[in-house]
Design brief:
Elements: H1 19-26, E1 45-46, E2 52-56, H2 61-66, H3 73-84, E3 93-96, E4 103-106, E5 109-112, H4 117-134, E6 138-142, H5 144-151, H6 157-160, E7 164-167, E8 170-175, H7 178-182, H8 187-207
Parallel strand pairs: 2-3, 2-6, 6-8
Antiparallel strand pairs: 1-3, 4-5, 7-8
Length: about 210
C-alpha cells in the first residue's frame, strides 16, 4: 500500500478540537483506504470528561451501519462486564483504534477482517486527539490491536493483562476484546472469560483517581 493511499489521518484531525468537533470531522477522513468501502466512520461515544477510556479494535458490521461503537454482540458482553465491575457505561468513553470497518464479503455477509498495522498507524491521530480531549485517568485496551495502538509496541495479552502499565503520562490496563468472550462456546469457558474481563475492568476502575 503506497503512502498516497495511506497518508495518515493527521491532515483531517482539527488541532485542539474537543470531542464533538472531532466527531464532526471524522467522516471526511481519507487517511487510509478503508473509508471507500465502509458505510461511515464510527467515532467514540460517552462522557467527554470520563475517567475511564476504553479502546477497542475497529467497528464491526452493526457498528458500521449504526455509526456507534460496541452496539453488536461484543457490545452486549462489554455492557454486562462493565455492570458486573460496578462501572456505569454512561460515565466512560468508548472508542476504537481504527474508525472504519475492514471486512471481506462472503455472499451477502460482511466478515470482520483484522486491521493491518498500517491502518492502525494511519488512524492513530484520531485516537491521540481523543485521548487529549478526554484526558482520562486510565485507558483500557480491549485486545491486541488496541493495546498496540495505545502503547505503540507489540503486546501479548496473556503476559500483560490485568495490571496497571505506565506509558508516559498514561496509565493503561490491557485486557481481552469482548468478542473473544463471544466466541467461546463452552459455558464454563465463557464464564471464565467473562470473569477475567470483569476482573481487569475492576483493576482499571480502582486505578482511576479517587478510587
Amino acid at each position: 500500500m503506497s503512502d498516497t493511499q495511506r497518508p495518515g489521518a493527521g491532515r483531517w484531525v482539527p488541532a485542539g478540537a474537543d470531542v464533538q468537533e472531532l466527531r464532526d470531522a471524522v467522516d471526511g477522513c481519507r487517511g487510509c483506504e478503508l473509508w471507500e468501502r465502509a458505510t461511515q466512520a464510527v467515532f467514540g461515544e460517552g462522557d467527554a470528561r470520563a475517567r475511564l477510556m476504553l479502546v477497542g479494535e475497529q467497528p464491526g458490521d452493526r457498528e458500521d451501519l449504526a455509526g456507534e461503537p460496541f452496539v453488536g454482540p461484543a457490545g452486549r458482553v462489554l455492557d454486562d462486564a462493565l455492570r458486573a465491575a460496578g462501572i456505569d457505561r454512561t460515565e466512560v468513553y468508548v472508542t476504537n483504534a481504527v474508525k472504519h470497518f475492514r471486512f471481506e464479503e462472503r455472499g451477502k455477509r460482511r466478515i470482520h477482517k483484522t486491521p493491518e498495522a498500517g491502518h492502525v498507524r494511519a488512524c492513530r491521530p484520531w485516537l491521540e486527539a481523543e485521548m487529549t480531549a478526554i484526558d482520562p485517568d486510565v485507558v483500557v485496551c480491549l485486545g491486541t490491536t488496541a493495546a498496540r495502538a495505545v502503547l505503540d509496541r507489540p503486546v501479548k495479552i496473556g503476559e500483560e493483562r490485568g495490571v496497571v502499565l505506565e506509558h508516559g503520562d498514561l496509565r493503561v490496563v490491557v485486557t481481552v476484546h469482548p468478542s473473544a468472550v463471544v466466541r467461546l462456546r463452552d459455558s464454563a469457558e465463557r464464564q471464565a472469560g467473562m470473569d477475567g474481563l470483569v476482573h481487569d475492568l475492576r483493576v482499571a476502575k480502582d486505578a482511576s483517581r479517587g478510587d
